[in-house]
Amino acid sequence: MTSRITDKPPQFLSNPPLTLEKNSVSVPPESQNFHWHGFTQMADFQNIVIERAEGCWLTTTSGQRLFDGVASLWCNVHGHRNPKMDEAIRAQLDRVSHITTLGMSADITDQLAERLAEVTPGDLKHVFFSSDGSSAVEAALKMALQYWHLKNQTTPSSTSTAKTRYLALSSAYHGDTTGAVSLGGIKYFHQLFAPIVFTPVRGPLPCSYRLPDGIRDATACDYYAHEIESLLKQHHAELAAVVMEPLVQGAAGMITHPAGLLARIRELCDQYNVLMIVDEVATGFGRTGRMFACDHEGVTPDILCMGKGITAGYLPMAATIARPHVFEAFLGKSSERKQFYHGHTFGGNPLAAAAAVASLDLFRDTQLTETIDAKSQFLRECLAPIADHPHVGDVRGRGLMVGIELVADRNRKTPFDSDRLIGRNVCERATELGAWIRPLGDVIVLMPPLVASNEELRFLADTVTRAIEEVLADID
Fold first, then answer.
1. 3-state SS of the chain: helix, strand, coil percent to 5?
2. Does the annotation list 94 as a binding residue?
3. Smaller CB count within 10 Å for the chain: N or C?
4. Which Enzyme Commission numbers does its entry carry (predicted)?
């Protein structure tokens, strides 16, 4: 198999391939000890320091240029140094950079809340701001729990069970704060912290690649919906909410759900009187080809969590947006103490709000979301040659959210031994060739900025194809 990439970089990559300098496993240089990197083994990490960026490209302190193949951890939308984004933040600096939203607000933050209500599904309209996706999920968990507490005060029942638990899918990932970790089901992210977390009701992993024995694509939605309904029948009296990522479970390895499952779960939540919390931190803001992934199946959750792309990757911000029936349960006299007992110092920060409003303006003015389906199709066409590689098990995803799963045995879908670090080695080679990507185990993740051109998408695909071919050339 031969990839289309040549040793000569394309015109927009004007420097030679990056050569990574691997540090000593025993003692990293002291200059690298000050900054402790997340999800990074500091004994042997590869020190890539970015000095500046423009469009879809990053420039290191040594002058190397790298294509931002994971959109700076799935959040960059309009590219780096977008003039309209930059100007919006500069203009807000001349007005006010930060005020609290506990009992007051900034005009730009109120404007953003209204704009978010306009672009989110259905009647979601009450926006609670925080600083990151994990915090948005934490707010949703507490919001749901307090909602049922308030509802029980209004209509108490001697036979009712307190609705204080949550149903989360297998291999779930909803963030790294304690409540979000409690929902999680990924071994290396979550099991270590078991002593300090709560235990959810664990649902199935609705994977379209590794289906259970006897289940086919045509029956997968019914199968997984039945599994979830069985759990709801058993636990609905104690469940505050079902919490899930819609369509794609990102950190689980870009696991794609069967079409129609999201809508079925919405129906089941209504049937069993359980709130539906949808985590669109990764899938929101155009990533799947719609503004929100819920839009694909016409679903309006009771609570929706958003982050990452909300400011187009410029500044930390997240939000939890609820439907009226949730919000109204918290209304009453101050003496009744029904207010939401939760808040963040930087929630609704005006600078971040200005960036978010500017991003929504760009979505509207450029009709960016409408371009994603065509770009997605083009990227998949560029990846077609690698799809037949004997160690590529699956190429999957939605929109510009792609996972390439590498396997030891394609026919049996057998994974590689995790200690071989196949995914990591492929990503390191891709970085050497000029595209910065990160793996999820042995799933190679491609999440470019939404504004990436076809030429840039082809470069990304060709670079990753070459990296896979080279790393797996002599694999046994």
1. 40, 15, 45
2. no
3. C
4. 2.6.1.62
Tokens of 3: 């990839």
Q: Is 133 annotated as a binding residue?
A: yes
173 annotated among ligand-binding-site residues: yes
Contact 329, 151 (CB under 8 A): yes
pLDDT of the chain along its 476 residues, tens only?
Answer: 444 444 434 444 444 445 554 444 444 556 567 889 998 888 887 789 999 999 999 999 999 999 999 999 999 999 999 999 999 999 999 999 999 999 999 999 999 999 999 999 999 999 999 999 999 999 999 999 999 999 988 776 544 569 999 999 999 999 999 999 999 999 878 888 989 999 999 999 999 999 999 999 999 999 999 999 999 999 999 999 999 999 999 999 999 999 999 999 999 999 999 999 999 999 999 999 999 999 999 999 999 999 999 999 999 999 999 999 999 999 999 999 999 999 999 999 999 999 999 999 999 999 999 999 999 999 999 999 999 999 999 999 999 999 999 999 999 999 999 999 999 999 999 999 999 999 999 999 999 999 999 999 999 999 999 999 999 998 86
Check: CB of residue 404 under 8 Å from CB of residue 395. yes
User: Smallest Cα–Cα separation from 163: which of 175, 176, 147?
Assistant: 147
β-strand pairing of 239-244 with 165-168: parallel
Contacts of 315 by beta carbon, 8 Å cutoff, 6+ apart? 89, 349, 351, 352, 355
Does the annotation list 202 as a binding residue?
no
Q: How far apart are CA 180 and CA 218, in angstroms?
A: 32
d(CA 360, CA 145): 31
Q: Is 226 annotated as a binding-site member?
A: no
Annotated binding-site residue? 344: yes
User: Torsions phi, psi of 112, nearest 5?
Assistant: -65, -45
Separation between Cα atoms, residue 38 and residue 26, nearest integer Å: 19
Enumerate domains of the chain plus CATH numbers.
Answer: 30-75+370-471 (3.90.1150.10), 87-366 (3.40.640.10)
